[in-house]
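Task card 7
Instruction: Convert sequence to C-alpha cells.
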Amino acid sequence: MQLVYNYPSQFRIKTTALLKRLWKALATFFSNIGKSIVKGQQARADFWILNNMSDKALKDIGVTRGEIKQKFNQKD
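Output:
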C-alpha cells in the first residue's frame, strides 16, 4: 500500500492553524494594551482625587500629601 499525500489540504490545515495562533496573539496583545491604558487612567484619577482632598480629609484616612506623591511615583 502506497501513502498518498494531499499537499493542498495539508497546507490549508497548517495555514489555518497558524492564522488562528496569529489572531489569538494579536487579540492578547491589544487586550493587554487596553488593560494598561485603563490601569494608567485609573491611577491618574486616583491621584487627582487624593491630591484634591482637603488636609482634614487626608488626615482622616491617615495619608499625607508627601505619601500620595511617593506612592504614585514608585516603580512597581
